[in-house]
Amino acid sequence: MLHFGIKDIIDILLVATLLYYIYRLMKRSGSLSLFYGVLFFTAVWVIASEILNMRLTGTIMDKFMSIGLIVLVVLFQDQIKRFLIDLGSQGRWHKLKNLFRHGEQREHNHQQIMQVVYACMSMSKSKTGALIVFQRKMPLTDYEKTGDIIDADINTRLIENIFFKNSPLHDGAMIIADKRIKSVGCILPVSHDMNIPKSLGLRHRAALGMSQVTDAVCIIVSEETGNVSVAKDGEFAIKVSGMNLEHLLSDLL
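Below the sequence we write its predicted structure tokens.
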């Protein structure tokens, strides 16, 4: 006779929570089909080895699970890193501290955001392609090293000059971290999500890829249309206005 107690309820809730976070992680990275495949294989493994006591099948699948786990860790090391950072994030404490921040500091942060917004709107009018990445909780040091370190103040003219078509630094992404322009000409991971519209170019794929493996906020200015888009958490916001961009950055940063 089966006994179902509080410990079993806690066990089910823990597994359900873990599956939910893995599902959300895979959805952001565009790997839902792989998630479903792993889930199906795990279910068959549990049924064969634990419920039906099929020793031979269970032993074979045990070996596959051991190897498969190592392969998954190698393939999804960036996503796993992001998951662990999200899990141990102190973001809630930062929000609590922000309630007590001095008004002058808030105004300074808003001015820095507006420098980026003004630059994006100006580049949108001239159809100057740009890709700007804002660091949030997850460090972007490895990506900063792929470009040229400049460590400069956030300034509208500087941003426009960097992305000017004849500038040697206009290719690649600009990374903003700790309220500074840290690096330019950076190389980002490109998303291979098949659901991305074909009208969106390499900048959009790089921005989406970055938002899938990190918690960064990426702003894209299209060189073809001049439209401003934002990528975060593996999703796009297309044709963002200046006011919406200001509100979005203020909320997220």
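The radius of gyration is 22 Å.
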